[in-house]
Specification:
Elements (H helix, E strand, L loop, with lengths): L1 E4 L12 H10 L7 E5 L5 E4 L3 H8 L4 E5 L3 E4 L4 H4 L20 E6 L40 E6 L2 H7 L17 H10 L3 E6 L2 E6 L7 E6 L1 E2 L2 E3 H14 L3 E4 L1 E2 L9 H10 L4 E5 L18 E6 L3 E2 L1 E6 L4 E5 L12 E5 L19 H4 L3 E5 L5 H10 L4 E5 L17 E4 L1 H13 L4 E6 L3 E2 L6 E2 L19 E4 L3 E4 L18 E4 L2 H18 L5 H10 L12 E2 L8 H4 L6 H4 L4 E2 L4 H10 L4 H8 L21 E5 L13 E11 L4 E9 L4 E6 L2 E4 L5 E10 L7 E9 L4 E10 L1
Parallel strand pairs: 6-10, 6-13, 7-10, 13-15, 15-16, 16-27, 20-21, 21-22, 22-23, 26-30, 32-39
Antiparallel strand pairs: 1-3, 1-4, 2-3, 5-12, 5-14, 8-9, 11-12, 17-25, 18-19, 18-24, 20-24, 28-29, 31-33, 33-37, 34-36, 34-38, 35-37, 38-39
Helix pairs in contact: 5-11, 6-7
């Protein structure tokens, strides 16, 4: 359990040593329980193992705000810099003279493989004098593992071992070393050094590099084979703050909770209060509406989009049809002649045989054949392993309706093609309609220039924000599909136990991959503008993001094939080159976030859990979520329809925003576009004239809305421009 303590209730006898107070409180309910971690900055309190009855008793003791059960979180699991327009632009030095080499990106994940060339420190200067971190040594991690690129490496296992028992060091490394690959992939994506000649089995060949190649990397291993414990995550965030990171990257998450119960939100608040930008993944639960995690407004939340690159694999059927999928298989190809193909559901005695789960296929029915498996339940690559073990010669992996036309390439064990819903249905129809269906699979290598791109990945979690509908999430999308980056030497590219292949780089998909893209871009912007706050950096990335292709069409959604919306991509797809010079930013301080907590009705005690402050919302002041100076507008509207519907009278809501000039003097004019006539939008004033750097000016937006049926959602856009800069803010209207 994680125990949140109220320091204002600490007895005088413990004023000089709050740790003794923590120990005394624990002993008041249990003589045998031991403290796991004592926290000082991210949380006022500690974590300890105890019974549920002891936890309930402890929560009733004086000075205890909350006793929260420790939880398991999961990770959200070349071409990117060029696709983002960074080649030739990343080597920016600061406006104020502080080079990007002084910026440190902290990554909470599965650890690091320090031998990866992505951590080569050639060309980097001395470690920044402000850095207070270090590298924790062990049998599998020695002093030479760190250098001027990888300047910090720590591990946190006490919470995990308290829950699951001692770590078996014959299976995984009790050190910062990465046994899974995920942490090496994310940290090298954020700030890896350039590596010429990188590829996965020849796919995506080129120079692999992080977003901020001159930034430093510090890793905090919090995720183990059984998951990531919230008590370890809090301890790692606390240490990262003390070490002196500037950006904190976390490609992990769990269920969505109110902020005072959300470990990552609490830790992120502590980091943000010290000027650290916290970058998190939105989650991989899309395309279900409201599936986001990490939605606190002080967190930068990133969804996933595609690159303009794919790895085609072709399925040729006996009727002459040729359908396109994707694959990263690189072994011996199938014979040129067509061979039998079978539907997995017809080659199994299991009701789930069509999914190619372990032991579900009958070897006599699949031997020497291509097997059509359907996506879902078990890992995509595991399905190929099941087919291979049963004697199959190849696999077609077909999307179901949940995945639509999304194509995710994997390093399969046998010739394969992952195909979209339409192609999968066509292949299945052919198999079931022919007496002796035949097919073959051939690889198409690597193709660039794929259009349209980007498109929103089907797996990318979607809005609305279920905790605070008045704050739009995700904030934006970034590349997260088929990303090439560094990998561990301990696991094969599939991560499965039976995969004995060793690779230096791997191609992986997920919002876990889009998050470190943004973490690296934030580091790049921090290097160029060291005086900017985390909120200003996020604003720059949001207001310069794009929602349309060069053709004028809106970014598409892979799940539907239709135009995506701001509930899918937030402000749009990041454009880091424009973000370096956004013109105006929407800034926020920690006090603004405290006011936000007042607006959502937090009591003094729940406020204390998040902020660690004795703060009481002023009784005479009217706090409103709509006054949070966020770079987007989410406008929840009441409906007159339904049994709990209200009046049909128009609803009038006023939002206030303040923008700060971070560019040259100029006159900005506003324009609003929207896809509904049921809301009237008035901006006052309509012109903002800036004469100096860092000058602030405010404006209001008044929305006058008619009642529409519950569940109706419409979209718009508010734009300020001085002719050079375009400062965009998405608008979402939702009736409930």
């Amino acid at each position: 359990f994680i125990v949140h303590m109220d320091h204002s209730d600490m007895p005088e006898a413990f004023i000089d040593n709050h740790l003794d107070w923590y120990g005394s409180s624990l002993r008041s309910v249990s003589e045998s329980a031991n403290m796991i971690y004592a926290y000082t900055s991210v949380v006022h309190g500690y974590s300890a193992r105890m019974t549920a009855a002891e936890a309930n008793l402890l929560e009733k003791q004086p000075g205890v705000l909350l006793v929260q059960e420790d939880m398991v979180y999961d990770v959200h699991t070349t071409r990117s810099p060029e696709f983002l327009g960074l080649l030739g632009n990343e080597g920016s030095t600061a406006v104020s003279g502080s080079p990007i080499g002084d910026v440190v990106v902290g990554v909470l994940d599965t650890g690091v493989w320090p031998e990866s060339k992505s951590y080569d420190d050639a060309g980097l200067g001395p470690i920044p004098a402000s850095w207070k971190g270090g590298c924790e040594l062990s049998r599998s991690f020695n002093s030479s593992s760190c250098n001027r690129k990888l300047i910090g490496a720590r591990f946190f296992s006490q919470g995990y071992e308290s829950a699951f028992g001692p770590i078996d060091e014959t299976v995984e490394s009790k050190s910062p070393r990465d046994d899974k690959g995920h942490g090496t992939h994310t940290s090298s994506t954020a700030a890896g050094s350039p590596v010429v000649g990188a590829s996965l089995f020849g796919f995506a060949a080129g120079t692999a590099r992080g977003m901020a190649t001159h930034a430093r990397v510090a890793v905090y291993k919090v995720c183990w084979l059984g998951g990531c414990l919230t008590s370890d995550i809090l301890a790692a965030i606390e240490k990262a703050i003390a070490d002196g990171v500037h950006v904190l990257s976390m490609s992990l998450g769990g269920s969505v909770f109110d902020y005072y119960l959300d470990t990552i939100a609490i830790g992120a608040f502590a980091a943000a209060s010290r000027g650290i930008l916290v970058s998190c993944s939105a989650g991989n639960a899309g395309p279900t509406p409201g599936s986001l995690s990490n939605v606190a407004p002080w967190i930068t939340t990133t969804g996933a989009g595609t690159l303009d690159r794919k790895f085609p694999s072709y399925v040729t059927l006996g009727n002459g049809d040729k359908l396109t999928g994707v694959s990263l298989f690189s072994g011996s190809p199938l014979p040129k002649s067509l061979i039998p193909i079978v539907y997995a559901g017809d080659a199994s005695n299991s009701s789930y045989g069509y999914l190619c789960t372990k032991g579900s296929l009958i070897p006599e029915k699949v031997k020497g054949k291509i097997v059509l498996c359907e996506r879902g339940i078990n890992a995509r690559t595991q399905k190929g392993s099941v087919v291979r073990l049963a004697g199959g010669a190849g696999m077609v992996l077909a999307n179901t309706a949940s995945y639509g036309e999304e194509l995710v390439a994997d390093a399969h064990f046998l010739p394969s093609a992952a195909v979209g819903l339409t192609a999968g249905d066509a292949i299945k129809k052919y198999i079931l309609s022919e007496k002796n269906p035949i097919a073959t699979i051939t690889s198409g290598g690597t193709q660039l220039g794929i259009q349209p791109s980007p498109v929103v990945a089907a797996f990318s979690s979607r809005g609305p924000n279920t905790i605070t509908p008045g704050v739009l999430k995700p904030d934006f999308i970034a590349p997260g599909v088929n990303i090439l980056a560094g990998w561990t030497g301990k696991a094969g590219p599939t991560g499965l136990p039976e995969d004995t292949r060793h690779v230096s780089f791997n191609i992986v998909s997920g919002t876990s991959m889009s998050c470190p893209h943004v973490s690296g871009l934030a580091a790049m912007i921090k290097g160029a503008h060291p005086e900017w706050s985390p909120a200003a950096i996020k604003s720059a990335l949001m207001t310069t993001a794009y929602k349309k292709y060069k053709t004028g069409e809106i970014i598409k959604d892979l799940a539907t094939g239709r135009a995506a919306t701001s509930l899918d991509y937030g402000a749009g797809h990041v454009d880091p080159v424009l973000a370096l010079d956004p013109g105006l930013v929407y800034d926020l301080s920690i006090n603004d976030y405290v006011d936000f907590l007042c607006a959502i009705g937090y009591s003094a005690s729940t406020m204390k859990i998040v902020t660690k402050q004795n703060y009481t919302c002023k009784p005479g002041r009217k706090y409103k979520v709509s006054d949070l100076n966020y770079p987007s507008f989410s406008v929840p509207l009441p409906t007159a329809s339904g049994p709990k519907g209200g009046s049909n009278a128009p609803i009038v809501l006023t939002y206030r925003r303040t923008v700060t000039n971070v560019g040259t003097p100029g006159t900005y004019k506003v324009s609003v576009t929207q896809d509904t006539k049921d809301v009237k939008v008035v901006v006052q004033p309509q012109v903002l004239n800036f004469v100096s750097l860092n000058e602030k000016q405010s404006y209001t937006v008044t929305f006058t809305a008619s009642s529409l049926p519950s569940g109706t959602t419409n979209f718009g856009n508010l734009e300020w421009t001085d002719g050079k800069h375009v400062v965009n803010s998405p608008i979402v209207f939702s009736w409930t």
